[in-house]
Design a protein that fits this description.
Elements (H helix, E strand, L loop, with lengths): L2 H13 L1 H36 L5 E7 L2 E3 L1 E2 L2 H6 L4 E7 L1 E6 L4 E8 L4 H10 L14 E4 H11 L3 E5 L5 E10 L10 E5 H8 L5 E2 L1 E6 L5 H9 L5 E5 H39 L3 H12 L4 H33 L5 H6 L16 H27 L3 H5 L1
Parallel strand pairs: 6-10, 7-9
Antiparallel strand pairs: 1-2, 1-12, 1-13, 3-11, 4-12, 5-6, 7-10, 8-9
Helix pairs in contact: 1-10, 2-8, 2-10, 2-12, 8-12, 10-12
Length: 391
């Protein structure tokens, strides 16, 4: 690097500080917003993957006329004998309309004979002891929901209205703060009997059946055998759920990617307009430099130094601003777009994830184009005969 030319580039930036400060500000804001959006998407996707990894390998549901129906628990006897099936467990769960907050609570019935569910819930709820609700009628809820119930009713119990119109009042024996931030707010844990009563599910019926397999390579074969049992069975694999989450976050991130590309195009139109038509002062300056012995490559070096200083400073500053906005301020405004709007919205803390691929992609999409937008007009001016410019 030629130090003298670098010093001249710094002086040139200082002399035309207004124009360069304008471009620097726009570029920094554009990069900061873009990095923040993609960082939020990656962080929430990482949290969703943690939740999905706790799901069973296969979930069997029954659908008739496009509506989900309850399954007969006797179906387990037919599924468990399929070669490769490690376990098959009926699950009772559903949604309860909490009219006061105009939101839905997720009711989950715990099965004491299901080691996989117990292990999963233990991991999710930070190793809380769920045995207290297995043998007695009570509930365990998230901390945020517990605070709301205390504010509304001023007591440690909650009354559920069953589909038949009766009320079931269950005491709150404990609360939990989920190890997964996306799960703790609207979940209500209780035993199978209480869950069935709240949701109006008859004895011997289940919402769905959770299946785990011993060999993942046999997953497609087992899935096909279960589907052949009845045309009303809907078989969902863990990979399909993961793909759904992936598509959901990619869709939302894609909307912002379109915004990013549109803004990027607009930005470079502004830069091209600012720089393609060099001012008379800048053109004369280049002509004078050529007339006193500067070569074209010297002029281009100065312009490259100028653009690199602006671009790299804006890129580094945008990384710092996006990290501060996302991880220290928790992305106010933008986080709601990905998480949704709800009174019982999870108290979600975005976890730090350094994504080198993201930084490299944003860098090569923006920085080289900006440098080219600066250098090309300068090159055109540098190859012009100095005498013609001065005349």
């Amino acid at each position: 690097m030629n130090i003298k030319l670098f010093e001249y580039a710094l002086l040139s930036l200082t002399r035309r500080r207004t124009k360069h400060l304008f471009i620097f500000t726009i570029l920094t804001l554009l990069l900061s917003i873009s990095l923040s959006i993609f960082t939020i998407s990656n962080s929430i996707r990482q949290e969703a993957e943690y939740s999905v990894n706790n799901l069973p390998d296969i979930t069997v549901q029954k659908q008739i006329g496009g509506r989900q129906q309850y399954l007969d628990e006797a179906l387990i006897d037919d599924i468990i004998v399929i070669p490769g099936v490690l376990s098959a467990t009926p699950r009772v769960w559903g949604y309860y309309n909490f009219e006061y907050l105009n939101t839905n609570l997720t009711i989950i019935g715990l099965d004491p004979f299901d080691p996989d569910m117990s292990k999963t819930l233990t991991k999710i709820t930070n190793e809380i002891d769920t045995s207290s609700i297995i043998n007695e009628k009570s509930i365990i809820i998230g901390e945020q929901l517990h605070k709301i119930i205390k504010e509304i009713y001023n007591k440690d119990e909650f009354s559920f209205q069953t589909p038949s119109g009766d009320y079931i009042t269950l005491p709150i024996t404990s609360t939990f703060e989920s190890a997964s931030n996306m799960l703790s707010t609207d979940i209500v844990l209780t035993n199978l009997s209480s869950a069935s009563s709240i949701l109006g599910i008859e004895t011997g019926l289940a919402t769905d059946i959770a299946i785990n397999v011993s060999n993942p390579q046999e997953l497609s074969t087992i899935t096909e055998k279960i589907e052949n049992m009845s045309p009303s069975f809907k078989v969902i694999t863990k990979d399909q759920i993961i793909a759904y989450y992936q598509n959901m976050f990619d869709y939302k991130a894609g909307i912002f990617l379109l915004f990013f590309l549109s803004s990027l195009f607009t930005f470079f139109m502004i830069v091209f307009d600012k720089l393609s038509g060099l001012t008379n002062e800048e053109t004369k300056e280049i002509a004078i430099l050529k007339s006193v012995g500067w070569e074209t490559r010297n002029v281009l070096q100065v312009k490259i130094y100028e653009s690199v200083i602006i671009a790299f400073t804006a890129f580094i500053l945008s990384i710092c601003l996006s990290i501060f906005y996302v991880y220290f301020l928790q992305a106010p405004g933008l986080q709601n777009i990905f998480m949704g709007y709800s009174y019982l919205k999870p108290h979600f803390e975005l976890t730090y994830k350094f994504d080198l691929n993201l930084l490299i992609t944003v860098f090569f999409v923006t920085i080289p184009l900006y440098i080219a937008a600066v250098v090309i007009p300068a090159w055109k001016a540098a190859i012009t005969d100095p005498g013609e410019v001065m005349r």
